Each structure stands twice: as C-alpha cells, then as structure tokens.
Amino acid sequence: MIAAGEGETMNCCSPGRDDTGFETKSPHPLTDPAPARGTGPSAGTMVAIEGGTYLMGTAGPVAYPEDGETTVHEVTVNDFSLAPHAVSNAEFAAFVKATGHETDAERYGWSFVFGGHLPDDFEQTRGVAAAPWWRQVFGASWRHPDGPQSDLTDRLDHPVVHVSHHDAMAYCAWHGSRLPTEAEWEYAARGRLESATFPWGDELEPAGRHAMNVWQGSFPDANSSADGFYGPAPVGSFEPNDYGLYNMCGNAWEWCSDWFDAEYYQHSPGLNPTGPTEGEARVMRGGSYLCHESYCHRYRVGARTSNAPDSSSGNLGFRVARGVATPGPGAEGSG
Hints:
alpha+beta, paralog of FGE (formylglycine-generating enzyme), 4 helices, 15 strands, globular
C-alpha cells in the first residue's frame, strides 16, 4: 500500500480524483458530445411525486456542520417523477451498448475501490492518506467494480457504480430523463415524513430489523454483513418508503443535478431551488454500503456532501427523474 495526499482534506465518503495528490489528468479529451436526448428506451415505471412544501435540512447539531445541512428552511417543489431505484448495471449496459459511451473511469484508466473488496494477493495500490481504505485501482470501472479481476456476473441488478456526474448526465440525455435536484431528492426521500432522520422514521433499525445497506461492525476492518450485504445490494432491496422508492439511504451514493455550496441553504429560494449557477463539485445524497456512524453519518435524508464531476468510486451511482424543474423566483439556476 502506498499512501498519497498527505495533509489534504477530502471527502472520505466517496473520494474525488484530486483528493489523492497524484496525477489525475485524463489521457483522453473529455469532449465527446452527449448522445441525442430521448434516443433511449422509455424510463419504465417512474414514481409520480406530487409536489408540496417541506422543511429541508437537519435541525440541531450534526457531525458535519461544514456540509451546511443545519439551516432548516421551507422549500416547495413542483410535481415530478423519480425512478423507484438507482440505475442498475443492466440498464447502464443497455445505454453503453446503444451509444458506445466511455466513462470517465475508463478514460482515466482507474477508479477508487474499497480496499476490503480487493483480493489478498492484489498488486500494490496507492491509497488516500486521510482514508486509506480507498485504493487507486487501475482497470476498475463500472464493468469491473472491484478491479480488473471482477465483472458483472451476478451483479446486473446492482446499482451501477464508478460513474461520474458526466456519465450520469450522458445517460440521462440518452434516456430522456434528468438528474433530480437536491431539493427534489430530499423531498422524495422523506416519503411524507416531516423532519424524520430516515425514509421510514427516526430509528436506525425499526423494530430491530435492518432497513438499509450500511456498514455493520467496526469500520473499516470488520463488517458482519448483518443487514445481508458486504458490498452493494440489488437495487430493489429492503422496504421502499411511502412513495415506493428503494434505497434512498444506504447502498450507493446518488448524484444530484446541483452544484454544491455549503452556504446555499442560507439564501436558497423557497420555490424549486436548483442550486448555484456554478461550482467545483456536484451534490451527492443518500450514503452508501460503506457508511457507519463512527466515521460517516451521512446516511440520513437530510445529509449532503459533494464530489468533483469527473470523480468515481465503487459506491457512487445515480437515479433518474422526469418533469420540469423550473427555478422559482430568485433561484440561481442549476448551471
């Protein structure tokens, strides 16, 4: 193991390419045109979400005040629809077959893999000093989620991972859909439960049952897999929330359309906020199978974080939305 990025701050939830301190320049220009909008199949069964008003954010102290989630504010969103689950490997494979899309991870030649998923005899890899469980693995991509020795056998129903924000946007363009805004994502994830911690309420394990796929045990060394999974779970696992949406917390992080600004909630418009007009990182929501309260308590509906648009890792995917996300008066737009 080779540590990299000494002294740098980084997002331990899903590392960005610039978090490592080593060269990340793509060997290929990232200038391929996006596939024509709407050339893909229909979105299939989308969940219609009736718009409404809710309290966005988290009241009280949280572990990550730098994320800006504690400015609770009233937000109204219009009607929209959201996929019941994250885009699966099978769905992403259909997109790649139809368009020939090459993901950012494939362009760079590597992506971040959780070290616990690598074989004991795997070749020496670089890691992030602040989060050494994240390894730079050459050959890792959506096709090879745990490195070049792995494939999608028995994983076609798992969420696609190792996809950047660029890749998600390209899929949406082909699919005739879009990424949800951060406000839409949280509104849907709450499942009509005002200010609850999780999509089902405030208890991590309601009635003693596991309700999502997160780390069980002592992170990062011991995962009992008590919830049934060591890595990602199939996209339709666990009980859906009141809207019929699966895995809004845990399993895989999900990209949103917004640029990230830790202070955005302080001046966010009340109607259909779509985020700042520009930024350096895009919003991620929901947490993943690697989340644990001891180091990353962001597997809550009100939690937020971000990553660079070209970043990818083995716990980062997306789901699609439809409907017009019209910015309200005073909104800054989605950029």
